[in-house]
Structures are given as structure tokens and as C-alpha cells.
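Input C-alpha cells:
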């Protein structure tokens, strides 16, 4: 999979958990208003993508507050370094990916408890 496919698959996986099953996501869809994601979900997406792609463009100064759509997310990762498919030679073991997703789930549960 190339970088864009990895990003879209990661977003789709989390959207399916949050907002119910979907077959695909489109670049012009709004992450919050149309896909039902929160800032914590976006943080989880970034954590999973760091494991998957080996890059975190937000640690290099990219602004996460400007990410409103899937297309915005794709552009940030394109500008954040690496070529399409970067990190795929050293693709994480599926267990490592599950652990990253589980860490994100724990953070969401803790935040939900704190809101109660």
C-alpha cells in the first residue's frame, strides 16, 4: 500500500469503530462534522500512522489545528517527509499495530471517564 492508502485505511478503521461501518472515506470529508471524529480520535490516527509509516509530521511543526478533512491529513503527511510507501520496508508487525490502536483506545476511555 502507498502512503495515501495507509492513511485512508487507518482513518476508515477508526471511523468504523466510532461512527459505524463504511466502505470507504473520501478526501473531502470533514473529520469531525461528517465522520464523527474528535481530537482524541485524530491523535489516535496520528499515533497509528507513526507506527505504520515511521513519520510524525506534527513533531516537525505541522499544525494539527489546520487538519479538517482527510485531504488535509494527506497533504500534511506528503509535506512531512518520506516518499509514498515510506516505512513499508520496515512495516510494523501486526502486534505492534494492535498495541498502538489499544493505546489510543485506553486514552479515549480515560478521557470519557474524566468527562463523567
Amino acid at each position: 500500500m502507498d502512503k495515501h492508502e495507509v492513511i485512508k485505511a487507518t482513518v476508515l478503521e477508526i471511523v468504523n469503530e466510532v461512527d459505524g461501518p463504511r466502505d470507504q472515506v473520501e478526501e473531502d470529508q470533514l473529520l469531525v462534522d461528517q465522520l464523527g471524529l474528535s481530537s482524541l480520535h485524530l491523535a489516535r490516527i496520528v499515533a497509528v500512522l507513526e507506527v505504520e509509516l515511521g513519520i510524525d509530521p506534527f513533531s516537525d511543526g505541522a499544525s494539527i489545528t489546520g487538519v479538517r478533512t482527510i485531504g488535509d491529513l494527506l497533504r500534511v503527511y506528503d509535506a512531512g517527509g518520506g516518499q509514498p510507501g515510506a516505512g513499508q520496508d520496515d512495516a510494523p508487525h501486526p502486534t505492534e499495530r494492535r498495541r498502538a490502536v489499544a493505546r489510543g483506545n485506553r486514552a479515549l476511555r480515560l478521557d470519557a471517564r474524566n468527562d463523567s
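The chain has four helices and no strands. Helices lie at 3-19, 39-53, 70-79, 94-115.
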